[in-house]
Amino acid sequence: MQSDESAIPQSDPFMLFEVWYAEAKESEPNDPNAMALATASEDGLPSVRMVLLKGHGPDGFVFYTNAESRKGEQIRANMRAALLFHWKSLRRQIRIEGPLEEVSSAEADAYFHSRPRVSQIGSAASDQSRALPDRQVYLDRVTALEERYPEGNIPRPPHWTGFRLSPRRIEFWQDRQYRLHDRRLFVRDAAEEAWSDTLLYP
């Protein structure tokens, strides 16, 4: 028989995220920071893909990308998005929705240059999401950058940047037996910046 108590305590949503994220780092075999990012074009055409969380806190959730990619173009056209973390090992999900803002140049530079040198080169050489006539074309561009910059960091391309999602809704989902799942939704009041929460039917 299921307990009548919720498995998701009423709490600050950011503190709760920290607890679940820490547990995911211990239990997920690969990429506990992987999250689905859903965006939409200016006319509402949706698209979703996996990206990696690279920063988080009360001010939001940060990821990086090529702003000239398909997702980058959608973000620039419609600065709102949704994130989904799914940790199968814990049988948990977190859904996050809100507006986006671009990170500062200093933040983008710092993260870009924290990456392995090969990753910096790979990003700088890529016209992400655009048609590639042959893989060798891309590999030749990688080689050319390696020769041009034999040492040190690679200059960050101006179109390679990051975005911060400022959450307005955060939903925590916990699997329970017989599909009697637990769901708790936190909603931020835009005017007062205060959070309210409620349980949802599964």
Give the tags.
2 domains, 202 residues, ten-stranded antiparallel β-sheet, alpha+beta, 5 helices, Pnp Oxidase, Chain A
Can I get a quick summary?
The protein is α+β, with helices and mostly antiparallel strands. 27% of the residues lie in helices and 34% in strands. The chain has 2 domains: 143 residues, Electron Transport, Fmn-binding Protein, Chain A (Pnp Oxidase, Chain A, Roll), CATH 2.30.110; 41 residues, no CATH class.
The CATH topology of the largest domain corresponds to: Pnp Oxidase, Chain A
Quickly give the CATH architecture of the largest domain.
Roll
Give me the strand/helix succession. Answer: HEEEEHEEHHHEEEE
CATH top level of the largest domain is Mainly Beta
Structural class, by secondary structure, is alpha+beta
How many helix segments? 5
How many strand units? 10
The share of residues in helices is 25-40%
Terminal CA distance reads 17 Å
Strand residue percentage:
25-35%
Q: Determine Rg (CA atoms, Å).
A: 20 Å
Total count of domains = 2
